[in-house]
Amino acid sequence: MIRLENISLSYGSRTILRDVSLHLGKGELCALVGRNGAGKSTLLRALTSNAATRIDGVPMRELSPEQLAQSVAIVTTERIRIENMLVEDLVAMGRAPYTNWVGHLQEVDRRIVGEAIAMVGLSDFAKRDISTLSDGELQRAMIARAIAQQTATILLDEPTAFLDIPTRFEVCRLLADLAHKEGKTILFSTHDLDSALPVCDSFAIIEGDQLRKLATADAAAEMDRIFKQ
Q1: CATH top-level class of 1-71+153-229
Q2: Which of 9-23, 41-55, 80-94 has the highest mean pLDDT?
Q3: What is the pLDDT of residue 229?
Q4: 159, 73 Cβ separation under 8 angstroms
Q5: pTM of this prediction?
Q6: Which of 65, 116, 190, 219 could form a disulfide with 214 if both were Cys (CB 3.0 to 4.6 A apart)?
Q7: What CA–CA distance (Å, rounded) separates 223 from 191?
Q8: pLDDT at residue 101, rounded to an integer
Q9: Which three-class secondary structure state does DSSP give residue 25?
């Protein structure tokens, strides 16, 4: 569960969001939507850096960096393309908050990495160089890294960007499974309403400097109004 209370966010002299709150429960899949430049990425960053954030009821300022890394996983828009890095190596990076100071993986870590890779359907790719992956395969590997981090909350910035239509639906269904079957709290920003609407429990909608969270059944008509203006 993650909770952000009554914060305002600015970019330079511009106030992006004014006195907004956001509450997400366990097992909830929520899409963060808004026009380009509305502040979606800024809000995602604020959820892991603002003193007003509470994670599982604990004020974020009371968490050590290690505790925060064990509580929230983040999947950014950055695409890692490192030659000679295998899929299993990329996913193993998610174990960093739990390994010893030299980053040595124990047997339990290797098991968790394997399970995360299997969960995203990449078991046959574990030994593949990530530079050979398609955009969709790489995105699934990045999500597997977040799964291996074993956090209760996952935040993703535009996880379906640059993917073809079938892969967008696959990624959104994967996120739904993580929320509804694994009980994770997931918030992801997106412009892809067609892929998000069938699977999301709620939508956090940025309009102007305000943020409203609506159940999916209520959000569809509201988003149609906003984005067709």
Answers
A1: alpha beta
A2: 80-94
A3: 57
A4: no
A5: 0.90
A6: 219
A7: 11
A8: 58
A9: coil
Distance between CA atoms of residues 15 and 7, nearest Å: 11
Structure tokens given for 130 = 């990530």
Residue 123 tokens, joined: 């078991």
**Residue whose structure tokens are 């990495």:** 113
Task: Write b or e for each residue in 181-212: b if 16 or more Cβ atoms lie within 10 A of its Cβ, otherwise e.
Answer: eeebbbbbbbbbbebbeebbbbbbbbbebebe
pLDDT one-digit tens code per residue, 79-107: 777 778 999 999 999 999 988 656 688 89
**The residue to which tokens 């992006």 are assigned:** 16
Q: Which residue, 215, 192, 193, is CA-closest to 202?
A: 215
**Residue found by looking up tokens 């078991």 in the block:** 123
Report the SS3 class of residue 136.
Answer: helix
For residue 74, give the H/E element and its range. Answer: strand 72-75
* SS3 assignment, position 201: coil
| Residue 45 CB neighbours (<10 A) | 16
3-state secondary structure of 172: helix
Q: Which two tokens stand for residue 150?
A: 């074993």
Q: Please state, rounded to an integer, the average pLDDT across all residues of the chain.
A: 89
- CA distances, 179 to each of 184, 210, 226 (Å): 4, 26, 27
- To the nearest 10°, report the CA torsion of 134, 136, 139, 145: -80
**Residue type at position 224:** D
Q: In the chain, list all ranges with CATH 3.40.50.300.
A: 1-71+153-229
> pLDDT tens digits, residue range 190-219?
999 999 999 999 999 998 889 999 999 888
**130 within 8 A of 85, measured Cβ to Cβ:** yes
